[in-house]
Amino acid sequence: MSRIALAGNPNVGKTTLFNSLTGMRQSVGNWPGVTVEKKEGSYYHNGVDIQVTDLPGSYTLGARTIDEKVCRDYLLNSSPDVVVIVSDALNLERSLYFLIQMMELRSRIVLVINSMDEAKRNQWAIDKGELEKRLGIPIVFTTAIHSEGISDLKQKIDIMVNIPNHQLRPFALQYSEPVEQWIETAQKEILQTPSLKSYRARWVSIKWLEGDPEVKRQLEQEGIQTRLPVFQKEVSQTIVKERYAFIRGVLQQAVQSGKSSIWSINDALDHVFTHKFLGIPIFIAFLYMIFELTFVVAEPLMVLLEKSFEQLAGWVSLSSWKPMIQSFVSDGLIGGVGGVLVFLPNIFVLFIFMGILEETGYFPRAAFVVDRMMVRLRLSGRSFMSMILGFGCSVPAIMSTRSIESRRERIVTILSIPFVSCSARLPVYTIFVAALFPRNPGMVLAGIYAASVAVTALVAYFLNKFLYKGKTSPLIMEMPRYRLPHIRNIMIYMWSKGKHFLQKAGTIILVATMIIWVLTFFPAGGEVENSYAAMLGRSIQPMFQPLGFDWQATTALIFGLSAKEVVISTLATLYGVGEEAQTLSITLQNHFSPIVALSFLFFVMAYVPCFATLVVIKNEAGCWHWSLVSFVMSVGLAYILALLIRVFGGIGS
Known about the structure:
Blueprint: E1 2-8, H1 14-22, E2 26-30, E3 37-45, E4 48-54, H2 66-77, E5 82-88, H3 92-105, E6 109-114, H4 116-121, E7 125-126, H5 128-135, E8 139-141, H6 150-162, H7 177-191, H8 201-209, H9 213-221, H10 234-254, E9 255-256, H11 265-273, H12 279-317, H13 323-341, H14 344-360, H15 362-374, H16 381-389, H17 394-399, H18 407-416, H19 426-436, H20 441-467, H21 487-521, H22 532-544, H23 551-559, H24 565-574, H25 584-591, H26 594-606, H27 611-621, H28 624-652
Parallel strand pairs: 1-4, 1-5, 5-6, 6-8
Antiparallel strand pairs: 2-3, 3-4, 7-9
Helix pairs in contact: 3-10, 5-10, 7-8, 12-13, 12-14, 13-21, 14-21, 15-16, 16-18, 18-20, 19-20, 19-25, 19-26, 21-27, 22-23, 23-24, 26-28, 27-28
């Protein structure tokens, strides 16, 4: 088995190349100790299993960001057999700068020049033979989105894996004489240190001259730093300039650029999508279409799944099993699994449309457009994109924060997302608003969503102000070229993102539903009034007495921790709607005044969406501490909001 690593700048088609190599034979996880996404896959070539690791996009090996640190640590500690550097045919200068750093570290390298279709379309001519001669490594032309050049790449990787070490020629860019003298001085000390012999002494010396903090720290631990002479800071700038001078010399001989139009299609689209005044309305229109289409497209599948589970539960109820077993299978197992699977079409359809926006290159533009507003909350456009996903479901929204580089911003966004009104809360809003506010239901519903946005913004602001002492979070990102989406990549994107809902949320909701069944069935054999659920509700109800909630409403809120849809079904069960042939709407009118109902809705709006959200917060933030903070903060804020509405609403009534 051989191991290869894909590395390169962001937005060069590295992930697309990874998908072309591995197909669906891939897994997604986290790198140890961080929440940066780790993608691994495999393919077979000439009877050999090739393991592929997709490293985070990086511009340098300086380890100044989480992505760069993950990339460099893997290359230094895991020692893949071959490193494949993926570059952009229309932006080779910057890609080759990363390549030079990699060549100073390792010898078994294959350079992939991707997006050759765009290069030809723009009349760019790249002399592969000249590049190979000047760089001394094999080069492959690819168009990864159409899987062109993949066979050639696999062949070049196979050749590079089997080259004997003595035939490899280490790359050594010759810097100016003063720089070379500094490198030679450092090399003498490094070569005499046993713990550093596994690294290239020249590479360590260059990183020392560049002021790399990790290298300087290690040299200090070994006692070498004190024996090395003090050099001027301009040396690092000289190294950068001389690298670019070498790269420009290579490209001048090997690349002939095409004619670039003054006003390209890419520029025209950017002028519209990132316009100061048009950008926001266009973005809102896109979001509206996504959420509208998500429910329109998914509704038939949802209805089909719902009816299937209803029929399955009906078959169980007609079986000859004992009543307790029937109830457990029908209400506990089938109800729990069905409650998750019914919403799977929404999740997957949503990620299909999100994948289209990401494949086309629009998402970075959207983040740029809203960044100016988010700066006031001391967040960036990346946080806003995650919060928008929260209107669908908090679980994938929190998982999407993996793209946020700053841990501070990521934690603040994770803690703020639960206050965004997810789609699971909408059934609760709809039934209560229709029953208690029949004259102006639209205005009340709009007010609840507006309040949700306001609470989310305030939480983010105060978390930044007090928890992180108001540090700002600048947005620095590259705008990739617009591209037509590829169906295969969108399907892989949909599955890699959507399957987390099954793996993490599904299990939690299933277990929670089974617990609810136990509490409502025992000890009276299905008599809710005498069940453990009723006992639990009556014991906690005094805490909610100031809000005007009875024990049924209190119990529904507790069960609502499993999933917000459970609130409605719990109220219907506990109020015995079916037994007295009353509609739930009339029952709510008999048990809730408009002020108490509004207080209840604001509590539902603000307190933690579900158990699955708490689990995902733990997984993404790295510990249960942040899940506890989210739970306490959301429940506390929900209680305060509900109490304020109850008190001030009561004064006015």
